[in-house]
Design brief:
This protein has 629 residues and is mainly α. Helix content is 71%, strand content 3%. It has helices at 7-54, 87-110, 117-136, 140-158, 165-196, 201-206, 213-230, 239-242, 248-257, 262-269, 271-276, 279-300, 306-326, 330-357, 375-388, 395-410, 412-437, 463-478, 492-501, 510-533, 543-546, 551-560, 562-597, 604-625, and strands at 65-74, 77-84. The chain has a two-stranded antiparallel sheet with strand order 1-2. β1 and β2 (77-84) form a beta hairpin. α5 packs antiparallel against α7 (213-230), α12 (279-300) packs antiparallel against α13 and α17 packs parallel to α20.
Length: 629
């Protein structure tokens, strides 16, 4: 199976091409099932490749490269279109294709009846292809190809309902913000090639020990800028909450299994370079990560849109992953990436089921008491809530515990901030569960907004939406068992990934820290129950938190005011000064040549006269100028 690694991205690409050519004829739901089948087939191939890798020894697993053809050859730069199948890339492929297939199936039900049904699945398959190219690329340029692909697809999917101005604006915001991150990625590539003479990951990581601390730090920090764009970290996080304007399956795909994990993957992929970089590179990554985690968690406590709560939660959880990357605990970061893919996909698809059952209502203040009318959605959502809240033995507890352990080893201050974030996470997720599924039914008074008439009578979702919820609920419960912290035999993910990223070893007592983390989660849950269920206190939801501390609004105001003026000034300088100097020089030469051309009449008598005049002038110079007379 290692010889057919190329099939993993090729199958979604085939799906894209077939739907591009025949999507209208396939229609609804055939095009959706076909797209789902292509991603599911890629998952089957990935499982086969995984089994083959497992049969190899640890060292051989890191060197499986499949070269398709020579892509770029310029001077000393030689780049192949090649795939690297190792424990890290195949781990990524497993949840990208597995969860991606579930999201595709869910979307068949969610998008039923949409006038652009086949186009939606066209974009989804292209998105899956791009993400698989990103994680399988054996060099930074192939990764960048997929990196740009998911960026383009995010624009197409977020603004899928572009007739809404908010959706069109959100798509443009995602596209522009990610261009800033792209600049960082490109700079990392330039520095890597300058220092190593190659963009191949195996060469870069092998040569990492020969790099100076300054060079390694430059590569690491520029790559981190790229990661901040893709994985929505401060200050570039602001595109991700607005990504909610796309259909809910898009939110699940972007937030759980694909695009936002790309930045964490990139940093783990070049982890040997991070290890060589100056110590403050790790500190910068860890501080930005934990600051983002806390910032987003404070914003989530005051959101009323069911998807916005989950969007800021994603930003916060990604911050946790970067906290681990900065702490050198790469396995813990990947572990949380995997469990987060399970429970966050579940929560987003669960919210989509609620939205579908509520006739596209997203305001939690107009929900309530849905647990009876939507029992399967309720039961699976509860599993996702317990997982993200860090309640044992659900998957999120084990991965979050690993994160806090690594943070404590890095700095007790980082650990404390991580604990506060964990408390807030449990609080706002409990708040969401209570507002949506408990309390009084507030949907009786919801009137026509999205084509529904009269009372919005909620209903359970169809089977193709419910089945993915059940599967993801099982994974959200049991997913943490792949890396239990009891012994080497139970830390299966760590053993699997160790040849690629190494393992963070801690001498800190795990049980006391775990008990503190559990206590903080339970305090957050109890606090939310006291306020929103038992009504023991009035909710405190400051407007500044609902407004994301005014950051997004401040950036928009700057870009629309002084920023726009500055950009217009730069454009004027470019067109009038820079272009003016170039075009002015050309015009001057052209004008001088035009005047000189006038003496070239082609008339022989004129040329003879000119020669005669020249002879006379030479005689005068010899006679007068040389003092002969």
């Amino acid at each position: 199976m290692l010889d057919v690694v190329w099939l993993i991205p090729a199958l979604p690409l085939v799906g894209f091409l077939v739907i591009l050519l025949f999507g209208r004829k396939l229609g609804d739901p055939a095009s959706g099932y076909f797209a789902t089948g292509m991603v599911a087939a890629a998952f089957v191939v990935t499982v086969g490749v995984f089994a083959d890798l497992m049969s190899l020894d640890a060292e051989a697993r890191t060197e499986q490269v499949q070269t398709l053809f020579s892509w770029v050859t310029v001077g000393g730069l030689k780049i192949d279109l090649a795939f690297l199948a190792d424990p890290l890339s195949i781990t990524m492929c497993l949840f990208v294709t597995g969860i991606g297939a579930l999201i595709h199936l869910y979307a068949v039900g969610y998008m039923h009846g949409d006038s652009r049904f086949s186009k939606f699945f066209l974009y989804l398959n292209l998105f899956a292809f791009s993400m698989l190219m990103l994680v399988l690329g054996s060099n930074m340029l192939v990764t960048f190809l997929g990196w740009e692909g998911v960026g383009t697809c995010s624009y197409l999917l977020i603004s899928f309902w572009h007739e809404k101005e908010s959706a069109a604006t959100a798509g443009k915001k995602a596209f522009v913000t990610n261009r800033v991150g792209d600049w960082g990625f490109m700079m990392a590539m330039f520095f890597a090639f300058w220092a190593v003479g190659s963009l191949d990951y195996l060469h870069i990581n092998e040569a990492a020990g020969t790099l100076s601390g300054t060079t390694a730090t430059a590569i690491a920090l520029f790559a981190f800028i790229g990661a901040c764009g893709k994985s929505a970290q401060l200050p570039l996080y602001l595109w991700l909450p607005d990504a909610m304007e796309g259909p809910t399956p898009v939110s699940a795909l972007i937030h759980a299994a694909t695009m936002v994990t790309a930045g964490v993957y990139l940093m783990c992929r070049i982890s040997p370079v991070l290890e060589v970089s100056a110590s403050y590179a790790g500190w910068i990554i860890a501080i930005v990560g934990v600051a983002t985690a806390l910032f987003a968690a404070t914003v989530a406590v005051s959101q009323n849109d069911i998807k916005k709560v989950l969007a800021y939660s994603t930003v916060s959880q990604l911050g946790y992953m970067f906290l681990d990357v900065g702490s050198g605990a790469y396995v813990a970061a990947i572990f949380h990436m995997v469990t987060h893919a399970f429970f966050k996909a579940l929560l987003f698809l669960g919210s989509g089921s609620v939205i579908h059952g509520m006739h596209h209502e997203q305001d939690m203040r107009r929900m309530g008491a849905l647990r009876v009318l939507m029992p399967i959605t309720f039961g699976t959502f509860i599993v996702g809530w317990l997982a993200i809240a860090g309640v044992p033995p659900f998957s999120g507890f084990w991965s979050k515990d690993d994160i806090l352990l690594a943070a404590f080893d890095k700095s007790p201050i980082l650990w404390v901030v991580g604990l506060v974030t964990a408390l807030l996470t449990a609080f706002y997720m409990t708040r969401q569960v209570i507002m949506v599924f408990y309390g009084e039914a507030r949907w009786h008074d919801a009137h026509e907004e999205h084509g529904a008439h009269g009372d919005l009578e909620p209903h359970e979702s169809p089977w193709m939406m419910v089945v993915p919820l059940v599967v993801l609920a099982v994974l959200s419960f049991a997913g943490g068992f792949i890396n239990l912290p009891f012994s080497e035999e139970t830390e299966k993910l760590a053993v699997w990934l160790e040849p690629v990223v190494g393992v963070h070893h801690s001498d800190t007592a795990k049980l006391p820290l775990a008990l503190v983390a559990i206590a903080m989660g339970l305090i957050g849950i109890a606090g939310a129950y006291a306020i929103y269920y038992f009504k023991k206190a009035k909710p405190v939801e400051p407007k500044i938190l609902a407004d994301a501390w005014g950051y997004d609004r401040a950036v928009s105001a700057f870009m629309g005011g002084p920023g726009r003026t500055a950009f217009e000034g730069v454009a004027w300088a470019d067109s009038h000064i820079i272009d003016g100097a170039v075009t002015g020089t050309g015009s001057l030469v052209q004008g001088a040549a035009g005047q000189a051309r006038k003496v070239q009449s082609g008339n022989l008598r004129n040329y003879a006269a000119a020669v005669g005049v020249g002879v006379v002038l030479l005689l005068i110079w010899f006679v007068v100028g040389r003092g002969i007379l």
